[in-house]
Design a protein that fits this description.
It holds the Pfam family MOSC. It contains 6 helices and 18 strands. With 349 residues, it is an alpha+beta fold.
């Protein structure tokens, strides 16, 4: 009997970088990633540099809730239809709920922000959000929102984010506190993906992981771990363990409208200490990095033959880009249309 094609087993969106994700049945995918994914991040008040679980494990306990209308299958994530009162609700142990409006303010304070290699400008979410996160984390900080760009699929992104098209212009920032020389648009590393947009992710708009790979990893651990340790956007069901290492282009057949959305796997995802943080307790441990080091290091996989810097890195999941916007849903069929060539890993154009 022929093996069935793999499918999308789960979709996860992480509205605030390093906080808990939201599981959705379907979501708008654009070049910049899934609707609302890493749309916000917490930054240090003094220098605007991002704060993640690497520094503050307590972010793992910050829960984010979105309006039910956004979580309905095939809702297209059109925030603009929710009305001006639609909020994202943020809760954490010992803290009162924080409401963040989903509609962007027409006038706002711009703030210089840094995430990894990129320094740009973001939209400050105001004093209440800043006070909430400062009290929770115990350091002065601000909550900022990604501004976006006028790239090829910005119209789809604007519809998904409820953002008027004219506000999508890169660098067109109104308000006080911004640096006019900085842009609101962040691009991927051109070594692996040329001229793709990403928000406040660690580097690429989408992260894909294979549920069978997790099962294989868990078979080698004393205590199995949930997928939330790896924070993927797309979880693949029905594939062989680690089959994703052989995929370059995967076509998603969208059940909502029949269109095909091609996903390009551009770089294996090297993992950090966040994977060792229990997302239910914020407690730090040793796994899965110790075991991944024995089965998924660049040296073990042979990937260091062409990329020496990957010798001691450990990998789980793949970074993904796309040029095609569409609504992707749990259950959508995946077709592998092009294989991965590891000794090349040419940048996606």
């Amino acid at each position: 009997m022929a093996r069935m094609s793999p499918t999308i087993g789960a979709i996860n969106v992480y509205p605030i970088k390093s906080c808990r994700g939201v599981s959705v049945q379907s979501a708008m995918l654009t070049e910049a990633g899934f609707m609302l994914d890493r749309e916000w991040m917490v930054v240090r008040e003094d220098n605007g540099r991002f704060i993640s679980q690497r520094e503050k494990e307590l972010l793992a306990l910050v829960d984010v809730a979105l309006p039910p209308e956004l979580l309905a299958p095939a809702a297209y994530g059109a925030i603009s239809v929710l009305g001006p009162g639609a909020d994202m609700t943020v809760v954490a142990p010992g803290m009162e709920p924080l409401q963040i409006p989903l509609a962007r303010k027409p006038d706002f304070d711009a703030r210089k922000v840094t995430v990894w290699e990129w320094t740009g400008v973001g939209m400050d979410e105001g004093a209440d959000a800043a006070s909430w996160f400062s009290r929770y984390l115990g350091i002065p900080c601000r909550l900022v929102r990604y501004l976006g760009s006028n790239r090829a699929n910005a119209e789809a992104a604007a519809a998904a984010a409820g953002l008027p098209q004219q506000q999508q212009q890169a660098g067109a920032v109104r308000g006080s506190g911004g640096d006019g020389s900085l842009e609101g648009t962040r691009m991927t590393d051109p070594e692996f993906a040329v001229n793709y947009e990403t928000r406040f992710t660690d580097g690429y708009p989408v992260l894909l992981a294979n549920q069978a790979a997790l099962a294989d990893l868990n078979s080698k651990l004393v205590e199995p771990l949930p997928m939330n340790r790896f924070r993927p956007n797309i979880e693949v069901a029905g594939a062989d363990p680690w089959a994703e290492d052989g995929w370059r282009v995967v076509a998603v057949t969208c059940s909502v409208d029949g269109r095909t959305v091609p996903l390009t796997l551009v770089k294996p995802c090297s993992r950090c200490k966040v994977t060792t943080i229990n997302q239910a307790t914020a407690k730090l441990g040793d796994e899965p990095l110790e075991t991944l080091g024995t089965i998924r290091s660049g040296k073990v996989l042979g990937w260091n033959q062409t990329r020496k810097s990957w010798t001691h890195a450990v990998f789980f999941g793949w970074n993904v880009v796309t040029r095609t916007a569409g609504v992707v849903s749990v259950g959508d069929r995946l077709t592998i249309t092009s294989p991965q060539v590891h000794d090349a890993l040419l940048p996606a154009q």
